[in-house]
## 1
Amino acid sequence: MLRHRTWREKVSAISAISVSPRRRHLGLYYRLYFSNIGQREVCEFLRHLLRHLRGHVIVLLDNAKIHGARQVRQLVARCARLHVEYFPGYAPELNPDEGVWGHAKRALANGQPDDIRALHHEVAATLNRLRRSPRHLRACITHSALPLFLP
């Protein structure tokens, strides 16, 4: 028996769909990384949202351990306009962001990037196309099991 450890390169992602206060405008924000996402990256992403969104920002997060980590809790405590709510335990059907990743996976299926940089580029291009499609972003929200909050 030969044992072999494999190491695969990967692209990790974090994203959010934004809904304007009057529920007319939708946005998609994301960050891509070449390593695992930890609490530092979650905080970086939340600060990114705060830089780009005005007023109070309500973020719905799943119950991944990194979303409730010490650095994330400290950031939320320091930023008065940042409000975090958590989905119930394992409830991907409530999370509109799952629609983003379902769309991205379908668009990227059967792709064959030459290297990790090409994969990164293809993921970013796919998300940028989705970002420019309010119809698809709206569908991600309306197809989730969240209580309806879009007109």
## 2
Amino acid sequence: MTHEEQVLCETARFRVVRHRREAPDGGVLARDFIEHPGAVTIVPLLDDGRVCLIKNRRLAVGEQLVELPAGTLEPDEDPLATAFRELAEETGYRAEQMEKIHEFYMSPGIMNERMYLFVATGLTEGETSLDSGEEIEILPTAWEEAMSMACDGRIQDAKSLVGLLLYDRLRRG
């Protein structure tokens, strides 16, 4: 048997696809996965040492979460361009520099979403440009307080935990 794919659901942001292939024991292995175009998350560092977190209403979990700014890649969009765009849209800040520090998979057991992690510096304030339905509030936070929030459970968003903790490790050497 060759690898077969069946699209079960297609939305503007992702597809759910059933993959079938021959299993090592000769049987048929069928798995449903979410195919996602990828996304970025940004650690925005203000000149005074604070990090610009956001409070974001997340309908999927029915809560307002503390997060790093983030967003989905548009078709054929470079992750660096997405990072600049999403930072400005969600926080109003424009960055002079944007450095990619890592890439990782969000939940490889069920989807192929690759997250690109950037650090933004040289920030200048501006106006946000939120998508329809987005409920986002900026939350400039002292770095040590952000680390406390990551460790005590106030930050529950995986990409934000990875971004903050990894950058903290890198900056400490």
## 3
Amino acid sequence: MLQMLVRDFMTSSVVSLTMDDDLRKASVTLAVNGISGAPVIDREEHLLGIVSGMDILRYVRDMREKWGVECPALTILVTPFDEDIEDEDLRKFHRKVSETSVGEIMTQEVLTVHPDDRLIKAMELMLDNDVKRLPVVEKNRVVGIISRKDIIWAIYRGRT
């Protein structure tokens, strides 16, 4: 693993979000792609932050406590029509949560690696900071993402 580079194991087709995407879109994007988080980028693919499923769940929990609303399920994030919700307070809560922008809850200080960094550096950053993924940035643009799963795959393949 000492000689392996991030570029050899990163995912280069990155699923990303923008600051203006709402939490409904973010939740669906993460679920459909089977990922636990995604970088938040601008039009030039510059990294602005990162949002995770945990960020979304924390926000829902905090909003439930703030509003004092009993939410029957987390499906509020994927229910397309809040008009079907009879309770007015729950409908307002649903709208507030699902229409909140990614930019409002994303983590702005993001650890990153370069494609030419050694895989061991990415692994140590993940372990030391308890993160599951690191955006791979080159010339200020997101060019990939490296996850714990990618590093486990590298170990499995025996390319250490």
## 4
Amino acid sequence: MIVFACIIIACALLNRVRGGGFGGQYLPGRALLWVAPAVAALAWTIHSWPVALAFGLGYLAWGLPSWGHTLARLGGYTPGREASWLERTFEGIWPRVAVSIRMMFVLPGVAAVAWLIGDWRFLAAAPAFAAAATAVYVILFRPIGSHDWMRAEIATGALWGLLLTTPAFLKNWSIP
């Protein structure tokens, strides 16, 4: 259990680094390219290397497309940069639905892990993650202070930690 707690906390901190905080702004290039291998390494502490690699690549696929405009709509403001083509595709969608769809970018990684562990119940983790991450941003992301992104990124990172530890729980849980 202590290992799982450490993974959840580490993922929370790493996701903030990915977002450009906790020193992530000082990493050469995009912080995501440093954090995704770290997520894979964390997963490797409790999973086989193929599953760990799937988690790392899944994190990369989830974090790679820009999404600041989509998330900022929840707080009612527009970032100081132009929206990407992907963000523009979400402009006409209700912000909570747009964020939920964006959070479903976790699906390729979840599907790969489900296949590798041979347990398709893990596919339910993708919509659960998307719903929880959307709730995190709806509740914590308020453009009223300097810690808005930090709170949401840390909480969403903790969700990533839960995602990494879930297959270990599924091994011991069976439906008759």
